[in-house]
Amino acid sequence: MDDESVRIPEMVLGSSNGQKMPVLGMGTSASPLEGSEETKTAILQAIEMGHRHFDTATLYLTEEPVGEAIAEALSRGLIKSRDELFITSKLWCSDAHGDLVLPALKKSLRNLQLEYLDLYLIHWPVSSRSGTYEFPINKGDLLPMDFKSVWEAMQECQDLGLTKSIGVSNFSSKKLSDILAFAKIPPAVNQVEINPLWQQKKLREFCKANGIVLTAYAPLGTRGTIWGSNRVMENEVLKEIATAKGKSVAQVCLRWAFEQGVCVVVKSFNKGRMRENLEILNWTLSEEESRMIGEIPQSRGCRGEDYISEKGPVKTIEELWDGEI
Known about the structure:
Substrate binds at residue 123. Keywords: Oxidoreductase. The active site is at 60 (proton donor). The structure is a single chain. By secondary structure, this protein is an alpha/beta fold. The chain is built from 10 helices and 14 strands. An 8-stranded parallel beta barrel has the order 3-4-5-6-10-11-12-13, surrounded by 4 helices. The longest helix is centred in the first third of the chain and has 14 residues, at 63-76.
């Protein structure tokens, strides 16, 4: 690690024999979804700055550039070993079938040029017709997930050493309870939308009580996504606090999440903003500022409907959303 890089705190994952995950990760999702040389370059810059946690997914089409960046970082001596990194990828809905989980993970590992992942997540609590990788998902392709067979296959992936930990994404407390009822290996992580405008207080309490680490995506809101808006970054309470602290609104959002005990995945390929995102570790929000953020009216940015296209027969999306999430 060079003189200008930052050492990011880590959080122990409860179901992984002491495995540690850096609390600040770099996301690689973009809209439109496409892998690129830009992704590879940004990841190399992030590694130089001190980032060690990188989040990708089959859907994002960024596994290959992430893998290329890791290989180059090793060859250039930016890191001494792949073990210094924490790499997360995700199982897409069309592979969320008991017999397809292991082949899907093996394909992700080939794309990433890795022998193992640090964390493998079920991307959404719903399945879709196998062989299709459309986004948004056609309503006619949606299928209820067989949670037991899919989770058993996820457990097999961990038992085989192909991933150090397993978890979920976009799961409500109810769906987590369903998995916990039969899981031999409980989910280590639940990655969901969390930001000052969608604080997920009930879900945070549930996950804390059950030893599940929460990771926030869209910690700065959903700008730049197909459903996105700039509501978080334009919030007057956050802007007031940022001005008073001499910080950016983005830094206030990330610091708030950090103080809630939530890990954060934030996507920026801009070198200046990547550096800014790291500068949240040596200051705190006051009790009054935390209270002000806690009283911001709540509304979700990422809705289940945004992942569903109108093609095909109408189906309920209850499989996607229930409870608070």
